[in-house]
Amino acid sequence: MKASLDVLLDVQKNYKQLLKKMTRIHTLTIAEWQLLQNVLDGNDTQTELVKKTKLDVSTLSRQLSKLVEKNLLSIKKMGEKPMARKKYLYQITDQGRTALNEMNADFEKMSSELFSQWTNEEQNLLKILLNRLNTSFERIES
């Protein structure tokens, strides 16, 4: 039997592979899907998105620009203070909302299929154990 962390690596690889396949269908990347969700959730400035995603500013900026190019996000300049750093407000477009809704629906369908043979008790136990494992990782990082 494989060690727990080895199994987690396998699960992560399978999960990422499925997500890549699903996001490709909607002409998104996993990062773009997550960014669209964050903007929809009200994190609509680069400062808020950096805090939420913990991405490097330049990486985030490139990803946001790509979403604007794809017409999934619109961008609006905020304020006109001289010598101040430019601030932008990002908003999800109708096209972005459609792509996000379709991707989220496919994600929910995949999740339902994945756990269709699991009882509620088994699903809850998995959540408890994964949360406990995550807490242990956070303690090690501190």
Architecture (CATH level 2) name: Orthogonal Bundle
Reported by name, the CATH topology is: Arc Repressor Mutant, subunit A
> Major beta sheet, specifics?
2 strands, antiparallel
Domain module tally: 1
Strand order of the largest sheet: 1-2
**Average pLDDT score:** 92
- Rg calculated over all Cα atoms: 19 Å
Distance from N terminus to C terminus (CA atoms, Å) equals 31 Å
Number of helices: 6
Strand-residue proportion: 5-15%
* Low-pLDDT sequence parts: none
Q: Residue share in helices? A: 55-70%
Q: Which structural class best describes the helix and strand composition?
A: mainly alpha
Shape: globular
Quantity of strands, as a count: 2
**SSE pattern:** HHHHEEHH
CATH homologous superfamily grouping = Winged helix-like DNA-binding domain superfamily/Winged helix DNA-binding domain
CATH class: Mainly Alpha
Protein name: MarR family transcriptional regulator
Domain HTH marR-type: 1-135
GO biological process, one term: response to stress
Organism: Ligilactobacillus acidipiscis
Please describe what this structure looks like:
- One of its GO terms (biological process) is response to stress.
- Pfam families: MarR_2 (PF12802).
- The chain has 142 residues and is mainly alpha-helical.
- It has one domain: Arc Repressor Mutant, subunit A (Orthogonal Bundle).
- It is built from six helices and two strands.
- It has a two-stranded antiparallel sheet with strand order 1-2.
- Strand 1 and strand 2 form a beta hairpin.
- The protein is globular and about 60 Å long.
- The mean pLDDT is 92.
